[in-house]
Write a structure and sequence with these properties.
Elements (H helix, E strand, L loop, with lengths): L1 H31 L15 E7 L6 H9 L8 E7 L6 H6 L6 E5 L6 H7 L8 E5 L9 H6 L7 E11 L9 H17 L11 E5 H4 L9 H11 L3 E13 L4 H21 L6 H17 L3 H15 L4 H21 L8 H25 L16
Parallel strand pairs: 1-2, 1-4, 2-3, 5-7
Antiparallel strand pairs: 4-6, 5-6
Helix pairs in contact: 1-11, 9-13, 11-12, 11-13, 12-13
């Protein structure tokens, strides 16, 4: 009985602390800290280099470039750079059609992955600010200025847009993604008012060029590394609520699972590479945020397993534990049903259960991969329908 209670308490702490107590603590801290204020628009906007890493995006790159060219930003202060990770379809030919409109193409001779493609832009950048965006993401024309204006504050090194998950045209198999994205954006807004965000949105974020010039190993995640590099050089990173990027949900739960495994594995490897930032004696509240938001949150499957094992041990003597075990097993069964659902529109409860269960399994697989030292630099972009 004592062991069962111990497992339940430890497991519940691993679940409740990063997801519930952490935001409460951030809110409390934000009340006593001076908030970062949005700077005034500059009299002359800085030169911005927009980088778009792509691999076989012939179906979306034309629309993406048309939208970027329509951004509300001085055209003579905007460099658009597409980096092709050795695409084998018509992506490069389509990009070349935009050469007369100022779009530049850098082609990698062999596939190296997204970070390798981003590293390849470094000799070509002319902007003081580098904005990174993905091919399938729709960024409203006014979001670019809302992002770049924050660099009028000399303390800001990275500014991340606000992801807004939107339905795709292929069905609603992945309904849980929207709720999770909204929660994540809320946490980043709170972190902005305390010690700065600890991870940027790979879909749409900006960084000072002198920080972007730091090479990131190809197997690591540059959008996660960006705020870490900024903090090591004395800058903070912010989430900009009104700099919206519309992110279509992934086509299926299976695709979302693969994305999560890839993202978390690379995240764990990136965190190990930048592990000095976990030192609270040197990096204070930022280190606490990094421990909580990343490392402890990634231990969610451990917490869930501990709670379930503890409840199983308590169940023979306690009716409430029996009920909770039954509910947990029902949730797992619904998750399995959602994973194998025939079609694109499972019931909402089934879809949400499948999202939670697959997220736990993805985190577990990521830990195993990271501990084995799996390096997966080669990039297979998450294929999302283009945002409307």
């Amino acid at each position: 009985m004592n062991l069962g209670w111990t497992l339940v308490v430890l497991g519940a702490a691993l679940v409740i602390y990063p997801y519930l107590l952490y935001p409460v603590m951030l809110i409390a801290m934000s009340w006593v800290r001076r908030p970062l204020r949005r700077p005034a628009e500059p009299s002359a906007w800085p030169v911005v280099s927009v980088t778009i890493p792509v691999y076989n995006e012939e179906g979306q790159i034309r629309l993406k470039l048309e939208r970027v060219l329509a951004w509300d930003y001085p055209k003579d202060r905007l460099q658009i750079l597409v980096v092709s990770d050795a695409s084998s379809d018509r992506t490069d030919d389509i990009v070349k059609e935009f050469a007369t409109r100022g779009v530049e193409l850098v082609r990698l001779p062999r596939r190296g992955g997204k970070t390798a493609a981003e590293n390849a832009t470094l000799p070509h950048l002319r902007g003081d600010i580098v904005v990174n965006s993905d091919a399938a993401i729709r960024v409203p024309p006014d979001s670019i200025k809302k992002l770049v204006v924050w660099f009028g504050n000399p303390r800001v090194g990275v500014a991340s847009g606000r992801d807004r998950s939107v339905p795709n045209t292929d069905g609603e198999a992945n309904q849980g993604e929207t709720g999770y994205v909204d929660y994540e954006m809320w946490i980043r807004a709170l972190e902005t008012q305390v010690a700065g965000i600890v991870g940027a949105s790979g879909c749409f974020y900006a960084i000072r060029r002198q920080l972007h010039q730091h090479l990131v190993p190809e197997a690591l995640s540059r959008d996660f590394a960006a705020p870490l590099i900024a903090r090591r050089h004395g800058f903070c990173s912010v989430s900009v609520d009104d700099a919206i990027a519309f992110v279509p949900r992934t086509r299926s739960l299976h695709a979302e699972y693969r994305r999560k495994v890839r993202t978390m594995t690379r995240g764990l490897e990136t965190l190990f590479y930048q592990r000095a930032l976990l030192n609270p004696f040197r990096y204070g509240l930022f280190a606490w945020e990094l421990w909580t938001h990343k490392l402890i949150r990634w231990l969610l499957p451990v917490g869930d397993v501990l709670v379930l094992l503890g409840l199983v041990m308590l169940a023979p003597e306690d009716g409430w534990a029996q009920i909770l075990v039954a509910l947990a097993l029902l949730g797992i069964a619904l998750g399995a049903l959602g994973w194998w659902w025939p079609g694109q529109n499972p019931p909402r409860l089934v879809s949400l259960a499948a999202y939670v269960v697959s997220g736990n399994l993805a985190a577990l697989q990521s830990w195993l991969g990271a501990l084995r030292g799996d390096l997966n630099p080669i990039w297979e972009p998450t294929r999302r329908p283009a945002a409307n």
